Protein backbone atom coordinates (compact mmCIF):
# COMPACT_ATOMS: atom_id res chain seq x y z
CA UNK A 1 0.00 0.00 0.00
CA UNK A 2 1.28 3.42 -0.90
CA UNK A 3 -0.75 5.55 1.50
CA UNK A 4 -0.66 5.77 5.26
CA UNK A 5 -4.06 4.61 6.41
CA UNK A 6 -3.82 6.43 9.74
CA UNK A 7 -2.86 9.87 8.39
CA UNK A 8 -5.47 12.57 8.86
CA UNK A 9 -5.79 14.72 5.73
CA UNK A 10 -5.20 18.45 6.07
CA UNK A 11 -7.22 19.47 3.02
CA UNK A 12 -10.59 18.39 1.64
CA UNK A 13 -11.68 19.03 -1.95
CA UNK A 14 -15.47 18.91 -2.43
CA UNK A 15 -16.94 18.33 -5.91
CA UNK A 16 -20.56 19.30 -6.45
CA UNK A 17 -23.55 17.52 -7.96
CA UNK A 18 -25.43 18.25 -11.18
CA UNK A 19 -26.95 20.74 -11.93
CA UNK A 20 -25.83 22.56 -8.79
CA UNK A 21 -22.68 24.40 -7.76
CA UNK A 22 -20.25 24.77 -4.86
CA UNK A 23 -22.89 26.42 -2.67
CA UNK A 24 -24.45 23.00 -2.08
CA UNK A 25 -21.49 22.30 0.21
CA UNK A 26 -21.97 25.34 2.50
CA UNK A 27 -22.81 23.36 5.63
CA UNK A 28 -20.13 20.74 4.99
CA UNK A 29 -17.49 23.42 4.48
CA UNK A 30 -18.36 24.94 7.85
CA UNK A 31 -18.24 21.56 9.59
CA UNK A 32 -14.92 20.53 8.07
CA UNK A 33 -13.29 23.88 8.77
CA UNK A 34 -14.49 23.63 12.38
CA UNK A 35 -12.75 20.24 12.49
CA UNK A 36 -9.50 21.88 11.41
CA UNK A 37 -9.39 21.08 7.71
CA UNK A 38 -8.66 23.43 4.85
CA UNK A 39 -11.57 23.14 2.39
CA UNK A 40 -11.47 23.74 -1.37
CA UNK A 41 -14.88 23.93 -3.06
CA UNK A 42 -14.69 24.75 -6.78
CA UNK A 43 -17.53 25.66 -9.11
CA UNK A 44 -17.34 23.43 -12.18
CA UNK A 45 -17.48 25.15 -15.61
CA UNK A 46 -20.95 26.43 -16.43
CA UNK A 47 -22.14 26.38 -12.82
CA UNK A 48 -22.13 29.00 -10.07
CA UNK A 49 -21.10 31.73 -12.48
CA UNK A 50 -17.99 29.85 -13.61
CA UNK A 51 -17.26 30.41 -17.29
CA UNK A 52 -16.95 27.63 -19.84
CA UNK A 53 -18.33 24.12 -20.18
CA UNK A 54 -17.37 20.60 -19.17
CA UNK A 55 -15.95 19.18 -22.39
CA UNK A 56 -15.31 15.87 -20.63
CA UNK A 57 -14.93 14.58 -17.09
CA UNK A 58 -11.46 13.27 -17.97
CA UNK A 59 -10.29 16.71 -19.09
CA UNK A 60 -11.82 18.35 -16.02
CA UNK A 61 -10.04 15.85 -13.79
CA UNK A 62 -6.70 16.75 -15.37
CA UNK A 63 -7.43 20.43 -14.72
CA UNK A 64 -8.22 19.70 -11.08
CA UNK A 65 -5.06 17.66 -10.64
CA UNK A 66 -2.90 20.38 -12.21
CA UNK A 67 -4.53 23.49 -10.76
CA UNK A 68 -6.65 22.66 -7.70
CA UNK A 69 -5.31 19.67 -5.78
CA UNK A 70 -2.36 20.44 -3.50
CA UNK A 71 0.67 18.20 -3.62
CA UNK A 72 0.07 16.75 -0.17
CA UNK A 73 -2.50 13.95 0.27
CA UNK A 74 -6.08 15.24 0.26
CA UNK A 75 -9.54 14.02 1.07
CA UNK A 76 -11.61 13.99 -2.10
CA UNK A 77 -15.38 14.25 -1.64
CA UNK A 78 -17.86 13.95 -4.52
CA UNK A 79 -21.63 13.66 -4.62
CA UNK A 80 -23.45 12.32 -7.69
CA UNK A 81 -21.71 13.95 -10.70
CA UNK A 82 -19.02 15.07 -8.25
CA UNK A 83 -18.45 11.41 -7.45
CA UNK A 84 -18.02 10.58 -11.13
CA UNK A 85 -15.46 13.37 -11.33
CA UNK A 86 -13.67 12.22 -8.18
CA UNK A 87 -13.18 8.81 -9.79
CA UNK A 88 -11.75 10.50 -12.88
CA UNK A 89 -9.30 12.36 -10.64
CA UNK A 90 -8.24 9.03 -9.16
CA UNK A 91 -7.85 7.59 -12.66
CA UNK A 92 -5.66 10.51 -13.70
CA UNK A 93 -3.47 10.18 -10.61
CA UNK A 94 -3.12 6.43 -11.08
CA UNK A 95 -2.05 6.97 -14.68
CA UNK A 96 0.53 9.53 -13.54
CA UNK A 97 1.85 7.20 -10.85
CA UNK A 98 0.73 9.60 -8.10
CA UNK A 99 -2.09 7.73 -6.29
CA UNK A 100 -0.76 8.89 -2.92
CA UNK A 101 -2.11 12.41 -3.59
CA UNK A 102 -5.56 11.19 -2.44
CA UNK A 103 -5.56 9.61 1.00
CA UNK A 104 -9.33 9.61 1.63
CA UNK A 105 -12.23 9.34 -0.79
CA UNK A 106 -15.88 9.99 -0.01
CA UNK A 107 -18.33 8.85 -2.69
CA UNK A 108 -21.78 10.17 -1.83
CA UNK A 109 -24.93 9.14 -3.70
CA UNK A 110 -22.98 8.02 -6.75
CA UNK A 111 -21.60 4.93 -8.43
CA UNK A 112 -18.57 3.83 -10.45
CA UNK A 113 -20.40 2.33 -13.43
CA UNK A 114 -20.75 4.04 -16.79
CA UNK A 115 -24.10 4.87 -18.39
CA UNK A 116 -25.90 2.24 -20.40
CA UNK A 117 -27.33 3.13 -23.83
CA UNK A 118 -30.75 4.04 -22.47
CA UNK A 119 -29.34 6.40 -19.84
CA UNK A 120 -26.99 8.03 -22.35
CA UNK A 121 -29.90 8.62 -24.73
CA UNK A 122 -31.95 10.14 -21.92
CA UNK A 123 -29.13 12.55 -21.05
CA UNK A 124 -28.86 13.63 -24.69
CA UNK A 125 -32.59 14.33 -24.84
CA UNK A 126 -32.30 16.43 -21.67
CA UNK A 127 -29.30 18.30 -23.11
CA UNK A 128 -31.26 19.21 -26.25
CA UNK A 129 -34.26 20.30 -24.19
CA UNK A 130 -32.12 22.49 -21.95
CA UNK A 131 -30.51 24.23 -24.92
CA UNK A 132 -33.93 24.87 -26.45
CA UNK A 133 -36.04 25.67 -23.38
CA UNK A 134 -33.73 26.27 -20.43
CA UNK A 135 -33.62 24.24 -17.23
CA UNK A 136 -36.93 25.19 -15.62
CA UNK A 137 -38.23 21.68 -16.26
CA UNK A 138 -35.43 20.41 -14.00
CA UNK A 139 -36.54 22.79 -11.26
CA UNK A 140 -40.10 21.45 -11.57
CA UNK A 141 -38.93 17.84 -11.42
CA UNK A 142 -36.83 18.60 -8.36
CA UNK A 143 -39.81 20.23 -6.66
CA UNK A 144 -41.73 16.97 -7.10
CA UNK A 145 -38.91 14.66 -6.01
CA UNK A 146 -36.98 16.56 -3.34
CA UNK A 147 -37.76 17.68 0.18
CA UNK A 148 -39.16 21.25 0.15
CA UNK A 149 -36.11 22.66 1.96
CA UNK A 150 -33.78 20.95 -0.50
CA UNK A 151 -35.79 21.92 -3.59
CA UNK A 152 -35.67 25.57 -2.50
CA UNK A 153 -31.87 25.47 -2.44
CA UNK A 154 -31.44 23.52 -5.65
CA UNK A 155 -33.85 25.72 -7.63
CA UNK A 156 -31.64 28.79 -7.25
CA UNK A 157 -28.47 26.95 -8.24
CA UNK A 158 -30.12 25.18 -11.17
CA UNK A 159 -31.57 28.39 -12.57
CA UNK A 160 -28.25 30.22 -12.28
CA UNK A 161 -26.31 27.59 -14.23
CA UNK A 162 -25.80 28.33 -17.93
CA UNK A 163 -27.82 26.38 -20.48
CA UNK A 164 -24.63 25.47 -22.30
CA UNK A 165 -22.98 24.35 -19.08
CA UNK A 166 -25.89 22.12 -18.11
CA UNK A 167 -26.07 20.52 -21.58
CA UNK A 168 -22.31 19.96 -21.70
CA UNK A 169 -22.32 18.34 -18.27
CA UNK A 170 -25.08 15.97 -19.32
CA UNK A 171 -23.07 14.91 -22.37
CA UNK A 172 -19.88 14.58 -20.34
CA UNK A 173 -21.61 12.27 -17.87
CA UNK A 174 -23.08 10.19 -20.71
CA UNK A 175 -19.63 9.73 -22.25
CA UNK A 176 -17.78 8.77 -19.08
CA UNK A 177 -16.08 5.41 -18.70
CA UNK A 178 -16.83 2.67 -16.20
CA UNK A 179 -14.43 3.30 -13.32
CA UNK A 180 -14.97 0.25 -11.11
CA UNK A 181 -11.43 -0.85 -11.88
CA UNK A 182 -10.13 2.53 -10.69
CA UNK A 183 -12.04 2.24 -7.44
CA UNK A 184 -10.82 -1.30 -6.85
CA UNK A 185 -7.23 -0.23 -7.49
CA UNK A 186 -7.58 2.74 -5.13
CA UNK A 187 -8.52 0.40 -2.31
CA UNK A 188 -5.53 -1.79 -3.07
CA UNK A 189 -3.30 1.30 -2.97
CA UNK A 190 -4.47 2.24 0.51
CA UNK A 191 -6.99 4.99 -0.22
CA UNK A 192 -9.51 5.08 2.61
CA UNK A 193 -13.01 5.06 1.13
CA UNK A 194 -16.37 6.00 2.61
CA UNK A 195 -19.53 5.33 0.61
CA UNK A 196 -22.32 7.63 1.80
CA UNK A 197 -25.89 7.32 0.59
CA UNK A 198 -29.37 8.46 1.51
CA UNK A 199 -31.67 5.65 2.54
CA UNK A 200 -34.32 7.04 0.16
CA UNK A 201 -31.98 7.67 -2.78
CA UNK A 202 -33.84 6.34 -5.82
CA UNK A 203 -31.24 7.47 -8.40
CA UNK A 204 -28.17 5.81 -6.87
CA UNK A 205 -29.67 3.52 -4.22
CA UNK A 206 -27.88 2.02 -1.22
CA UNK A 207 -26.99 -1.19 -3.08
CA UNK A 208 -24.83 0.84 -5.45
CA UNK A 209 -23.13 2.51 -2.50
CA UNK A 210 -22.56 -0.97 -1.08
CA UNK A 211 -20.80 -1.89 -4.32
CA UNK A 212 -18.54 1.16 -3.93
CA UNK A 213 -17.61 0.02 -0.43
CA UNK A 214 -17.10 -3.60 -1.51
CA UNK A 215 -14.92 -2.73 -4.51
CA UNK A 216 -12.62 -0.51 -2.45
CA UNK A 217 -12.66 -2.35 0.85
CA UNK A 218 -14.20 0.77 2.32
CA UNK A 219 -16.99 1.72 4.70
CA UNK A 220 -20.70 2.18 4.01
CA UNK A 221 -22.81 4.76 5.80
CA UNK A 222 -26.52 5.14 5.09
CA UNK A 223 -28.07 8.52 5.93
CA UNK A 224 -31.56 7.72 7.16
CA UNK A 225 -34.40 9.75 5.69
CA UNK A 226 -32.25 11.34 2.98
CA UNK A 227 -32.74 11.15 -0.76
CA UNK A 228 -30.25 11.61 -3.60
CA UNK A 229 -28.89 14.91 -2.24
CA UNK A 230 -28.20 13.47 1.18
CA UNK A 231 -26.02 16.38 2.31
CA UNK A 232 -28.89 18.84 1.76
CA UNK A 233 -31.65 16.56 3.03
CA UNK A 234 -29.94 15.61 6.29
CA UNK A 235 -26.93 17.91 6.73
CA UNK A 236 -26.25 17.17 10.39
CA UNK A 237 -26.06 13.40 9.89
CA UNK A 238 -24.03 13.85 6.72
CA UNK A 239 -21.61 16.22 8.42
CA UNK A 240 -21.14 13.89 11.36
CA UNK A 241 -20.32 10.97 9.08
CA UNK A 242 -17.90 13.13 7.09
CA UNK A 243 -16.08 14.57 10.10
CA UNK A 244 -15.87 11.18 11.84
CA UNK A 245 -14.32 9.62 8.75
CA UNK A 246 -11.80 12.37 8.08
CA UNK A 247 -10.84 12.85 11.72
UniProtKB/TrEMBL annotation:
Please provide the record's keywords in A-Z order: Hydrolase
Q: What is this protein called?
A: Alpha/beta hydrolase fold protein
The Thioesterase TesA-like domain sits at: 31-246
Q: Does the keyword section mention Cytoplasm?
A: no
Presence of the UniProt keyword Acetylation in the record = no
Alphabetically, the GO molecular function entries are: hydrolase activity
